[in-house]
Backbone:
């Protein structure tokens, strides 16, 4: 039987709000509506002005609704910001029933134990991602239900965020009469859009370098091991150009995209560009090399800070598949080559995967990675929930084990 439903992803970013509406037929995603509006109420990935954020979301959602000719009432919404923290934890329970067969309730018990950590009152859990189960010492089990054992352990990745930041985002969406299917960590969403399963298996770091935040995530053995959001990204490059070339911010943004590069040596000494001056209608001529010299150190700083996080977390030598860069700033000329030279690892720009249909030429841009990832999250999570009962180790991938699904599955 043909299964058809609507899934909506809402990426509330620092520079833009993007809403994608997809018609999903038998698990195949066809984008039928898209809305985008400049984001006005966020700083560094966090809502700082509720009224303006609501306006931006309303505009993006209405646009997408009009294009798709549907009403949006349920969304997967991304969250980022430097308030996000993640840790790995584990727990063990005994299986005491005489038959020693592990049940759903046992899985529930062990995950509950692993997610129970002391949290300050202003912090809440966003994701509880079981990475692997261990039954009587046997590691690498994805679904232990039905196995026999006496000791069940679980390793989980816990993602938490500030209660205020989460609630402000929820308020903005719900005030428009839209329900939230799930709040999803943006690095996680982006990873679903641009990483291959081979990369995730081997070990890879994903950087989503947007306007206000750089989202970092590390995958290994198919699972997420580390996630972090740092509050520095493309807007900082633009600000540096504004100051360095004494030009209005819109002009700085334009020349960054048009002429910017982070490879100073790739620019000839005689290359010149015309730049608007502040406060007048005049223009001045500056060398493109000067522009590159402003951009390069900031890009270096962003990438170094991100790599330092990876190093501090102990994963620097555990990413043989290298680095994937996505988000709007990944479009900066030379950034892939720059990262490759600096860290001596394979680097590529993240692209929208196969299997996404509709508006493909538009959504192929890395600025849509998070929104597409939210759609994939919405689709694949549910698919797996249905398959779970008959499926053992080996299938599913990361979101199969995400918490929203997990609870539904256990209740069901
Ligand atoms: N061609 C380009 N060259 C350089 N930078 C670019 C280019 N295109 C877009 N950008 C930059 O990408 C940034 C926006 O990226 P993106 O849309 O991924 O951010 P966002 O999702 O709104 O923000 P965040 O994820 O940080 O909250 C802006 O700073 C913009 O200047
Ligand atoms: Mg973003």
Residues:
């Amino acid at each position: 039987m043909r299964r058809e439903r609507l899934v909506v992803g809402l990426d509330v970013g620092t520079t833009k709000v993007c809403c994608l509406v997809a018609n999903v037929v038998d698990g195949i995603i066809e984008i039928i509506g898209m809305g985008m509006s400049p984001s006005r109420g966020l700083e560094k990935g966090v809502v700082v002005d509720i009224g303006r954020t609501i306006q931006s979301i309303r505009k993006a959602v209405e646009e997408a609704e009009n294009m798709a000719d549907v009403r949006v009432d349920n969304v997967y919404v991304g969250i980022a910001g430097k308030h996000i923290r993640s840790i790995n934890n584990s727990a063990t329970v005994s299986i005491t029933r005489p038959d020693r067969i592990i049940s759903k309730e046992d899985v529930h018990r062990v995950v509950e134990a692993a997610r129970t950590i002391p949290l300050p009152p202003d912090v809440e859990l966003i994701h509880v991602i079981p990475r692997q189960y261990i039954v009587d010492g046997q590691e690498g089990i994805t679904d232990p239900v039905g196995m026999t054992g006496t000791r069940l352990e679980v390793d989980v990745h816990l993602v938490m965020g500030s209660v205020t930041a989460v609630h402000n985002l929820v308020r903005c969406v719900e005030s428009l009469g839209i329900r939230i299917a799930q709040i999803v960590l943006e690095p996680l969403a982006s990873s679903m859009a641009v990483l291959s399963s081979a990369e995730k298996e081997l070990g890879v770091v994903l950087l989503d370098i947007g306007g206000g935040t750089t989202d970092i995530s590390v995958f290994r053995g198919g699972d997420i091991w580390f996630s972090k959001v740092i509050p520095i990204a493309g807007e900082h490059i633009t600000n540096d150009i504004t100051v360095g070339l004494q030009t209005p911010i819109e002009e700085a943004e334009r020349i960054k995209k048009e002429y910017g590069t982070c490879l100073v040596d790739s620019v000839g000494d005689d290359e010149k560009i015309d730049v608007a001056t502040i406060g007048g209608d005049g223009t001045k001529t500056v060398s493109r090399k000067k522009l590159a010299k402003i951009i390069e150190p900031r890009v270096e700083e962003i990438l170094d800070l991100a790599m330092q996080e990876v190093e501090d977390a102990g994963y620097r030598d555990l990413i043989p598949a290298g680095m994937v860069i996505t988000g709007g700033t990944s479009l900066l000329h030379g950034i892939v080559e720059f990262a490759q030279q600096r860290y001596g690892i394979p680097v590529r720009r993240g692209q929208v995967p196969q299997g996404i249909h509709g508006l493909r030429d538009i959504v192929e841009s890395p600025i849509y990675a998070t929104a597409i990832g939210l759609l994939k999250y919405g689709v694949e999570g549910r698919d797996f929930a249905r398959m779970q009962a008959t499926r053992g180790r080996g299938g599913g991938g990361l979101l199969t084990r995400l918490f929203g699904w997990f609870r539904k599955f256990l209740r069901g």
